[in-house]
Prior knowledge:
By secondary structure, the chain is an all-alpha fold. It has helices at 2-9, 12-26, 31-56, 62-91, 95-98. Helix 3 (31-56) packs antiparallel against helix 4 (62-91). The protein is flat. The relative contact order is 0.09.
Amino acid sequence: MSEFMRRVDSSPRISRFIMRLSTALSSRRGWPLLAGTILIVISFVSFGIVILGLVLSDNATSVWLWMCLPLTLLHAAIFAGFTGAMLATPLGEGYQDTHK
């Protein structure tokens, strides 16, 4: 396994790809966060559709429905984290941070 990792680490093709990717993303710093936020929203909506189907069917037990609460909170937490990071980066330091 270490031989494979050494070969991947020294690959000029992967190195060029990483350099091109970092150059492209350096001018678009918010795109990965925006893509993550969009994926979380899509996941949350699809999760809500599945939960609605479970609730409307008579086959779901209450144990599975209680499992939905932590997953819903996880979606909300990740969405809030991505949104906070997207807002904090362009806003920069706060007023009190610069006058200490």
